[in-house]
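Bit of a strange request maybe. I'm writing a small parser for structure token strings and I need a real example to test against, not something I typed by hand. Could someone generate the tokens for this chain?
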Amino acid sequence: MTSSYSLGSRTFSSRLIIGSGKYDSFEQNLACAEASGTEMVTVALRRTKLDAPKGEGLLDFISPDRFTILPNTAGCYTVEDAVATARMGRELLDTDLIKLEVIGDDRTLFPDVAGTLEAAKILIDDGFSVLPYVTDDPVACQKLAAMGCPAVMPLAAPIGSGMGIRNAANLRIILETVEVPVIVDAGVGTASDAAVAMELGATAILMNTGIAAAKNPVQMARAMKLATEAGRLAYEAGRMPMRLYATASSPLDGLASF
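Reply from user aminoacidic:
Good idea to test on real output. This should exercise your parser:
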């Protein structure tokens, strides 16, 4: 990857974060993590048996010794549940990192923005490094950053939809007005979606279904890695200006005459 970025006291080189749900097996999840080059894997605390017998649990494959484990509060619909789940994750995984999700709608799985803001404040005051899943609302992202979140995680499209970047304009505004890292979360379906997100200037991307639901998840994980890297390189390189009319690739001065 072209450069590193920081989340609180942690520094990462890979700008691709993957999930741990919907895979056929823990072995497949690990193979995808390896192919993606990720350094961080998010784990749904309410949907993962962290106390499984030795050798049979997710963390026996996605080892905390190898990957940064990012616990998340997926499946929480109230502030109280999200806060309690985050605290449970800190006890079980010995980490202050938490991906905060307070879901507000069953059909779209869009976050409850007011609940997210409330829960974030409680958890920050409790010593957490809160990475909030939020709508692509610039004002909400600004408030979360001002509150002390080390990053914001606006959705690109509904979770698991694979629809890609639905509102590039809002993401641009967030990127221009929020000084903390912006991690695009949810909706990335294929490599071109990842490249677009990174070309906009996103710090990183978090994805799960785009890899896990592919016909060949390991191959898609590799594709997402390359797309994330290519998109970041293109962003750092700076694209040429777009023009309405053609411009000759070669200079016209000094053309030979026949």
